[in-house]
Amino acid sequence: MSQGSHFISKIPYFALVSLLAGYWSTITAAQHGTNISFAAVAILVYCLLFFLYTLFCLFVYPFVFSKFRGKYPLLFDDYSFLLGHVKMFLSGNCKDRYAEFIAKHPDAKAALFYGPLMTERLVVFDPLTLKELLVRYSYSFPKPSEVQETLNIGFGDGLFLSEGSYHQHLRKIMMPMFTLQHVRNIAPTFWENAKELVDLWDHKISIGADEKGILKYDTMDDFYNVAFDNICNAGLGVDLDALHDPGNETFNAYCQLFVPPRSWFDALTTFLTFFWSRFFYYSWKIPIHSRTQVSRSRAKIMKLIENIVNQRRIKLRLEEKDTNAQVDDKDLVSIILRTNRHSFTTDEMVNNLMSFLAAGHETISSSLLWTLYLLSRNPEVQASLRAAIYDKLPQLFIGSDAQPMSNEAMLEALENITELEQVMLEQMRVLPSVPQTLRIALKDHIFDSGIYVSKDTEIIVPLIGITTNPAIWGKDSYDFRPGRWTEQLIKGKNSTQTYMPFLAGPRMCIGKRFAETEYKITLATLIARFQFGPVNEYKLVYDARITSRPANGMPLLISAVENYSP
């Protein structure tokens, strides 16, 4: 039960008191020879109790009985009694809000955040506390029920949303999918799709560039499309070609799962889910257009995945009967069925593949978008990266006479490009794909830092607030400076709670190696073939909900790199 659910949890008690009041009133009235409606009294008492409790929650508890008020500063001063600080999440502008708070309270270990109707949440900035929260006591602080209910639509009921022993069980089964060798085996898919993106942009330049050969082009949709192709090719073993056919029925159905609320009912549902997580589930039973449309889209994607799983099972049985059969499927569905075929039911497979599809697509496309945004505004970093790529992988450049390399050799060279690693780490620090996450305490807990949380307290982990904190990263913490990543920092990137683009501890992203490989291949290919510049009139509108993205597209100035020589 989330903290917001406490409000709803009082309803049965209000109902009981109302019924008793109605019963007592009718009995008393009968003794005095008068008639009083039992229903009228019960409803009146219920409404009165509900009203008084609402007033208590809004105007008394936060200022008189709160354990956090006065102990921790408010995340920011402007809030409303109805929405609290939720406007920050609705606007998606958490990045600037966290920066403002840190500048004002540089030594604060935590901040107080108000949810709807002044329900309290704690925002933790202290790295040691986060280490306990995410690593040491990870399963004592799961995702709140309202988060699980909301994300289930797009992510399915799989590894991403599972908790406790079931999460440990799923993670153990799925680990073979993401070994180094398996990721290397599917890398050719990433190279091929990166080349498809290059060809598409070459064509766009040929028909739309100005006299200087520069094309002003919004890259946002193409990154989401190519990331979808990568995840479908490598994960499911199917080619849906969203890059060239973004209007195809399957891709459109998938996109429907992640659109923000579009009607008053959707917004109301999101609000009420803070108080009763199951409200979100039951709201999907109401036959309004936006709900039925998303429900059909979800069913379509899940049916597609189910058919793929069933086809792979049939193929696996045929391979077992034919000892001479060629086993060449490298997609993750085939891998998991070969290694753990009896560990998953088809329904479990479908839900876990939904999680993989959503998590892998949203985060990597966001990371690549932010990287080109940052490189376009830092031409010296872009030039240095291009020279480093040319030194190790000249085969990626037009006009190069370098000899072709095997997939293994290209991946080895890719891993040895220090500047590429630095750019990736710095982008994920400055503009992480997942800017924040939410946890809830299953029981009372005192952290080593002295921070106390009671049962059902929701805790916000402000990832972007930590990775850009000047107290940790220096005065230039908000600047994009890949050179800050020395060899020592790179080696220790996974052992700190001040850098967590893939989270940390038992819930660290299982597809981390997959995502990093896809990212490096795509970025290296693009930088070798194109020069990127900023569109001066473009003003970024930052939007961060589940993942971060620009709310107003990502237009860039793109020109071809030809006959390159560093």
Automatic annotation (TrEMBL):
The chain crosses the membrane at residues 12-30, 36-61. Keywords: Heme, Iron, Membrane, Metal-binding, Transmembrane, Transmembrane helix. One of its GO terms (molecular function) is monooxygenase activity. Heme binds at C509. Pfam families: p450. Its cofactor is heme. Belongs to the cytochrome P450 family. This is Cytochrome P450. It comes from Tortispora caseinolytica NRRL Y-17796.
